[in-house]
Design a protein that fits this description.
343 residues; alpha/beta; Rossmann fold; 2 domains; eight-stranded mixed beta sheet; four-stranded parallel beta sheet; 9 helices; 20 strands; 22% strand; elongated
Amino acid sequence: MKNKQSSVLLIYTGGTIGMMQDAHTNELRPFDFKTLTQQIPELNKFDIGLSSIAFKKPIDSSNMHPVVWIEIAKTIKENYHKFDGFVILHGSDTMSFTASALSFMLENLSKPVVLTGSQLPIGIIRTDGKENLITAIEIAGAKEKGKPLVSEVCIYFEYKLYRGNRTFKYNSSHFDAFRSPNYQPLAEAGVNIQYNKSALLKPGVKPLKVHLELDNDIIVLKLFPGISKKITSSIINTKGVKAIILETFGAGNCTTQEWFTAELKKAIDRGVIILNITQCLEGTVIQGMYETSSHLKKLGVVGGGDLTFEAAVTKLMFLLGQKMSPAQIKKSLQTNLRGELTH
């Protein structure tokens, strides 16, 4: 067997893409990744060496948890010097959370980590899984002048490659499942794969540093007109909470009622981090643009810029896990660490 130009490790965590339909019962069951090239013979045409690791018990993405992110990160760490790229097969429902988390956990990344999945199992005739998997592998193995072309955590789905921490799942019934409203695609697949090289992150120049400490003592408060004082107070004063994600209106605006402001101030005085992100799917938080956000800025609420909800959750888990001071966390939240923020 000739030497392959690139080597890619497939990591199957679970999800629709890894399912086959039993010919007799029509039930879906995980297929054996050791026979992957039998299921997708097109993979034999690649000049890429493929290996695979499958979780012993596939995880439905609705059951995704930081413990699993740590397991994935450990797998990449253990195999980092053996492969040129990594493809993670994952359920689509929480794929953006996993991609965002891994982007923060894998510091100084200089190789591609591409998450993909499908809306239909590979064993179904009309599946989108084959194209997603084939192209994700091609991207993970792509090199230029002997070096990986992509060096960040991405999502590939339905002909587009996105920065993982800029995405959210947009649609549950169409193949075009993801959107990246505040950052352009990193690549688009047609007859050829066209890379948007100016949009790609530069590879890390230091050795890979894998962070395995995450803290999920976070709550989310999504605002709506007429939100109850009693319920809001109970949420904000939840025992053990370390950070609150405040989902506000428009460019970061919220009610100026005195009771609401007083609740936020008490939380901040206790050392709780409050991060302001917009409910809008596109755009950014600009605290102080309107009177209805100026009071938040004065209180010490952190403006989240154009962070997605998924990136906000996972960035907070990551920063809280680093045992930083509240001041350091606030500064880091407003610092573009892995391409998650526009400045």
